[in-house]
Amino acid sequence: MPDVSPVQWLDDSLLNVLPLPACICEAPSGRIIKSNPQAVALWGQRPGVERGIHDVLRFVGPDGTPLPAEESPLAESPVLVEPGATRPAIIQREAAGALRVSINIVPLRRSDGSVDARLLVIHDASDDRARETLLAGQSRILAMIAEGAPLATIVDTISGIIEAHAGGGAIATVMLLGPDGLRLSHVGSPALPALFKKTLEAVELGPHAGTCAVAAWRRRPVQTEDIGNAPEWSDVGDARITPGLCAAWAMPIVASSKRLLGAIGLYFRERRDVTPSERDAVELFVLAAAIAIERQHASDSAVESDRRRDEFLAMLAHELRNPLAPIRTAAQLLGLSEGGSALTAKVQGVIERQVSNLTRIVDDLLDVSRITRGVITLQTVTVDVAAIAARAVECATPQIDRRQHRLTVSTPPDPVLVCADPARLEQVIVNLLANAAKFTPRGGEIGLRVAGADDTATITVTDNGRGIAATLVPYVFDMFIQGSRTLDRAEGGLGIGLTVAHRLMEMHGGSIVVRSEGPGFGTEFTLTLPRSAGPAAVDTPCHTAPCFAARKILVVEDRSDAAEMLALLLRARSHDVRVALDGDAALVAAAEFHPDVMLIDIGLPGMSGYDLAERIRSDKAHAHVSLVAVTGYGGVKDRSHALSCGFDEHMVKPIDQQALTDFLEAPPRQVLRPSTESTRASWVIEPDFVE
Asked: Are the beta carbons of 362 and 635 closer than 8 angstroms?
């Protein structure tokens, strides 16, 4: 869950359901932020904005002498206070005289352990000991909720406290309403017999479905004095004859919004009514249970929302990449045609640039989703920042040249080493250079400077472009944040590139900051990374592979446009190509054609690309065939799954033609000996991939 203060979700409605005086005050200042009506009644008047807890709760000693703030029960550091701690005190009220109280203190902690506020629950110390124990238990439950304890742990604790209060004469259960809104399920019922719980799980809410279900159905407390003969249990069956449970009482759990959440029930070992003390205990914890359940629902909703978002983004990327593949291939075919006109060349260039732009936008969308979920792992090595910057410049040069900018690059003579993921660091620098090119008027100045200090390395990208308004600077790395746009949105983009860059720098243990004097005065981005003392990783020399003769290639793709465009491009490069539109046709074609390489779409109708690869690998006649997965899904798991199914390579649509050419010009696939540990052939694959 996001790192937010509990003060933000402990709203007034949740504070107001507490039956005792309660307030939230800042730590350590003591300024009162929120208070319920019972608290206002206790101290006689509503505190002003600047009033503190010591102003309204005037602590005095046994002789009535006022205590200084450093000797008050609230003087202890909020960080050191145990959740649910109880402090006895005497307070001198403004209008009603002295009162002995007990104050339960719940530090409201962030996920990093810091405390910025405290929840105080105040009760009359003249109550009996049992009542104090219950209130301490309630504070304990509230502390567990504030600290994000699992719901099952919270409701088990609630059941245990209620049972202890009943002195062993009752078994407590907490039941939650299921997603269908028709059935209750046991969540906190550790002492309830297993058969009893199993029987009640299958019964719908109604007038004869057991005491808890009836209480939830009627939305009011229900007493059953004789389970074996009561009409409330007539639909339950075997549960009625459970030995040792004779009577029951239950109360519904209802949210502050009046939505039904479940029920808390008590089962007794003799035929009797619930006592006032037992009723009070359940009523006290129904409120805490409602808070815990609502918070769990909010968390579940956020998780489900994230899951749906990720599925949507993956599907969106897949659906966008599929049509991009034949468009890019068609553009490359235009470039291969002999005697093409200048117009044809210009059109081809426009198509390829726009396909690249759209592909980059799709990749940025997926990157920001993966990074925010923490599913990207950096592949770090010791690298020279200047070398990474040079690669980034090479990548960004076409965009800079198109807008006729002047790029100045400054690097030190000696290596500046850092421990980083080369691909991801290059991505960040390219992103900043592209941003500078996009928001600098045609013919502008862009600068890239690499420098090294004793402990840090810096990469600075400057431009003399549009600049950033002072009001926008603090939010420039937030997702979807953009400056003012012209009506034509000439710069394009979604406002997520800087978010990706910021998160990647954090993952590297570095930082990225932005400076701008305002609109019209340009922008400066500075990346900072800790320097590394280790030697730089040595790039493996790129051995030029001999260009093998034309290959026999089987393209397996159910989209006919994409299949035909790719086949035409490969034929133009002298390869012998066949096309199959589904898995069954591919098996027939492979038997007849005996291909050297199969380019297989994963999302085939009927037999998937994964299944087809496994069928090909199981046939010794095709042991020499190189298999390439061609797909719109580009995640780490997608690649790993493809390799585990027998593919030799995984390429994301639209295919990088240089990567495909390099693969086709590599030596043919070596036939590996199948593993003797399995009846199914397997190959040792060493994936070298950075998502």
From this structure: no
Sole residue written with tokens 């030596």: 667
End-to-end CA distance of the chain: 24
SS3 446: strand
Highest mean pLDDT among 288-297, 301-310, 678-687: 288-297
* The pLDDT of residue 117: 83
Query: How far is CA 157 from each of CA 88, 120, 132, rounded to the nearest angstrom?
Result: 24, 21, 17
Q: How far apart are CA 532 and CA 530, in angstroms?
A: 7
The gap from C-alpha 665 to its chain's centroid, in whole angstroms, comes to 41
User: Is residue 7 within 8 Å of 117, Cβ to Cβ?
Assistant: yes
Classify residue 331 by burial, with Cβ atoms within 10 Å: 0-12, 13-18, 19+.
buried
Distance CA 530, CA 509 (A): 8
Dihedral over alpha carbons 580, 586, 591, 597 (to 10 degrees): 80
**How, if at all, do strands 417-420 and 445-452 pair?**
unpaired
**What whole-number distance in Å separates Cα of residue 250 and Cα of residue 162?**
13
- Cα angle vertex 325, ends 320, 327, to 5°? 100
Strand partners, 331: none
Question: Does residue 688 carry a pLDDT above 60?
Answer: no
What mean pLDDT is predicted for residues 351-377?
A: 66
393 within 8 A of 433, measured Cβ to Cβ: yes
> 473-498: string of b/e by CB count within 10 Å (b at 16+)?
beebbeeeeeeeeeeeeeeebeebbb
Q: What is the pLDDT of residues 597-615, one digit of tens each?
A: 999 998 888 899 999 999 9
Task: Calculate the CA 202 to chain-centre distance.
Answer: 34
SS (H, E, C) 56-125: HCEEECCCCCECCHHHCCCCCCCCCCCCCEEEEEEEEECCCEEEEEEEEEEEEECCCCCEEEEEEEEEEC
Q: SS3 of 451, please?
A: strand
Contacts with 676 (C-beta within 8 Å, 6 or more apart), sequence order? none
Q: What residue has token string 């939230």?
A: 24
Closest CA to 449 of 434, 477, 429: 429
Q: pLDDT per residue over 306-347, tens digit each?
A: 667 666 666 666 666 667 777 777 777 776 666 566 777 766
CA distance 128 to 130: 6
